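Write out this protein's structure.
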Amino acid sequence: MATKKSDSKKKGDKEKDPEKEAKRKARQEALKNRPAEQRPNSKQIDVISINDKSKVMNFGYAVKNKEGYQGVVVTSVLVTDGKPVSTSVSFVPGTLTVKSKKGHGVICSPKNKKAKEEE
């Protein structure tokens, strides 16, 4: 009859770095406290109010590959009475990324990580 080997390492035994644990908890809180209309895979760029029932919401997503940033995909959604009516997707080529702030964002050039590491 085969017997199981008892592992000396159990899942609960290893100690977690408190700094990493704090960062992980901060990320989880940031996900919980996202703006109500924030899409998880894109960053909200802006909301243009047309009238009291209609608005246009723009979202941006940076496109990257092994060479680096290639551009930004911008998705515009027309919302009327709380329902999406029309969408538009466009690509803005260039070395660009999206930085978002509270409820709005901008398309800008990314920080250069190589130059940052040299300093």
